[in-house]
Amino acid sequence: MAVMTDRKPVHPRAQSLDDTAKRIIELLQDDGRLSYSAIAKDVGLSEAAVRHRVQKLIESGVMQVVAVTDPLQMGFARQAMIGIKVSGNIREVAAELATMHQLDYIVVTTGRFDILAEIVAESDDELLDIISTQVSALDRVVSTETFVYLRLEKQTYAWGVR
């Protein structure tokens, strides 16, 4: 399991977290299966207090606890990043893309592309279909460029807390 921050729209100011909340997040980033009692020993709180703090962190969108899987072992043969150029309102296009369940990561960016979207597909045919009939078909999408993943070299969610 991994602890990831919620990738919903970023608020202009980061939520103020106390040292205990930060330590809880660090511990869960290291081991998402760590027991409440083990966390409690480390941070000096009761197990119930830790359970409550973790629930508040999840409910507020500061973090989520998820199982990170290997798409290849889950039956998905293809992963890719799609660079998308947009004319008009980039946020509206990003919101439309966010409704597509096949896209698991969408970020508005600067540079050559306005939006980057990650896709996990069962086959090359599915990848082609989603890009051509769904992503490229959006009115304000000017062009796309697809970067097919050949091998995942590193994936981590333990970037710590500030």
From TrEMBL:
InterPro entries for the chain: ArsR-like_HTH, AsnC-type_HTH_dom, Dimeric_a/b-barrel, PF0864-like_C, Tscrpt_reg_AsnC-like, Tscrpt_reg_HTH_AsnC-type_CS, WH-like_DNA-bd_sf, WH_DNA-bd_sf
Source organism of the structure: Aeromicrobium fastidiosum
Alphabetized GO MF terms: sequence-specific DNA binding
PROSITE patterns reported for this sequence: HTH_ASNC_1, HTH_ASNC_2
GO cellular component: cytosol
Lineage of the species this protein comes from: Bacteria, Bacillati, Actinomycetota, Actinomycetes, Propionibacteriales
Superkingdom of the organism of origin: Bacteria
CDD domains for the chain: HTH_ARSR (cd00090)
Keywords from the UniProt entry: DNA-binding, Transcription, Transcription regulation
Stretches assigned to the HTH asnC-type domain: 17-77
GO process annotations (BP): response to amino acid
Protein name from the UniProt record: Lrp/AsnC family transcriptional regulator
One Pfam short name: HTH_24
